[in-house]
Amino acid sequence: MVETSAGRAVVIGGSLSGLFTALLLRRRGWDVDIYERVDSELAGRGAGIVTHQPLWDALDQLGIAWRENLGVEIKTRRVFGLDGHLLIERDCPQIMTAWDRMYDLLRSNFPSDRYHRGKGLTRIEQNGGGVTAHFADGGRAQGDVLIGCDGLRSTVRGMVLPEVNPVYAGYVAWRGLVPEDAFPPALHEQLFMHLAFCLPQGEQMLGYPVAGPNNDLRPGHRRYNLVWYRPADERTALKRLLTGDNGVSYDISIPPPAVSRASIAEMRAAADRVLSPQFRECWALSEQPFLQPIYDVQSPRLAFGRVTILGDASYVARPHCGAGVTKAADDAMVLVDALASAASVEDALRRYEAARVPFGARVVAHARHLGSYLQAQLKTAEERERAERHFSPEAVVRETATLDFLAEAS
Ligand SMILES: Cc1cc2nc3c(=O)[nH]c(=O)nc-3n(C[C@H](O)[C@H](O)[C@H](O)COP(=O)(O)OP(=O)(O)OC[C@H]3O[C@@H](n4cnc5c(N)ncnc54)[C@H](O)[C@@H]3O)c2cc1C
After folding, report:
1. Residue range 130-181, pLDDT digits in tens
2. How does strand 140-143 pair with strand 130-135?
3. pLDDT band for position 380 (50/70/90)?
4. ∠ CA 339-340-346 to the nearest 5 degrees?
């Protein structure tokens, strides 16, 4: 294969996908700038992140030492009945990290003078020789390739695939964190060092340990990450959940501080009614819960001349595989390999597309099946049968937050 000479890359979006892509490109000799719309340093999105092999591979490729301090290593998974009894315990070693930890690891390895904040992309122009990004502040940037790492609501995707929009899954994830030192000893013993679940009818509650503030991994200083999937009708309940105390209604997602006190009080009251005693106690101890509506995004194409999309901009799978960041890291490795070996940028993007379109479609479909029992509306008998298959405690413990399905025959 021919090594193409490295060129200039414009990366739109400076979160985890953008940083993985930009860092991997720099390792191959590309001249890379990141343009991030948010004006301040990014922080605290999404709380806990389950990690998988491709994410570790990407960190290894970047020469980032992670083995000592990526996150909290757990060994077991537990399912509790609604009355608090332990129903199942299974071995399943895994490293649980936090969004902030991943961001710090990547951001601290990327030069600050090449990371431009307050740069919202508004327009892209391509001609035979290159691509130009135009920003809301009137600035522009030119490159040989432009990579949209701009998330669920990607501006880049909106330009190249205007017909592809996030499709609401019919449920939301309530999220919260409990400081380890707030755990009473008995609760700590039952829950803290496990990926733990409880399964009210048509809902799923799970929790796992992550680093504490400032990536503190010392026992006693960590946090427990809570995720509670609950159905919410798009026209009624979701609308209410996306309206803040100030009366402002948000589209697609609501910033954590804007979630209304009434929604949080309603969620805490529901926790007292429907969850196992362990998780009831956790929600009572949690700091500032927030919520994320769950969406599917599936792009049928990824190569648009010298422009492509990656990470949540290209595919969003429901979080049941716990693989969004791992997929982004894997996308970035495939793209950068293609750019290093193809005869032209256009050819490289076509190769990336050929590899990642089927992969992304498979992950999105699998995660949709895992979450199907959380949807209030299942239309066909096949959908209902599949939902039942993924709802048992055994299935949830076996299938959640693993990529084992990728090794199975399609
Ligand atoms: C409940 C839940 C649990 C999850 N659990 C896990 C897990 O356990 N493991 C895991 O791997 N993943 C998990 N995920 C998914 C993971 O959080 C995402 O896949 C990942 O954070 C996406 O990163 P990204 O960089 O692609 O997008 P984002 O983090 O959304 O970043 C996009 C960036 O682009 C910027 N941007 C947007 N528009 C523009 C523009 N026009 N110009 C310039 N910049 C722009 C934004 O400001 C933002 O910084 C979970 C998600 C949810 C909802």
Report:
1. 999 999 999 999 999 999 999 999 999 999 999 999 999 999 999 999 999 9
2. antiparallel
3. confident
4. 30
pTM: 0.93
Distance 273 CA to ligand 1 centre (A): 32
Q: What is the dihedral of CA 98, 206, 203, 284, to 10 degrees?
A: -90
The reported pLDDT for the residue numbered 46 is 57
- Interval between CA 104 and ligand 1 midpoint (Å): 15
pLDDT for residue 288 is more than 80: yes
CB 146 within 8 A of CB 306: yes
Ligand 1 lined by 326 (C-beta under 6 Å) = yes
C-beta atoms surrounding 93 within 10 Å: 8
d(CA 298, CA 167) in angstroms, rounded, equals 9
Ordered structural domains, the chain, with CATH: 8-64+101-166+296-372 (3.50.50.60), 72-100+168-295 (3.30.9.60)
Q: Counting atoms of ligand 1 from 1, which one is nearest the CA of 313?
A: 26
Look-up of token digits 């504490």: 212
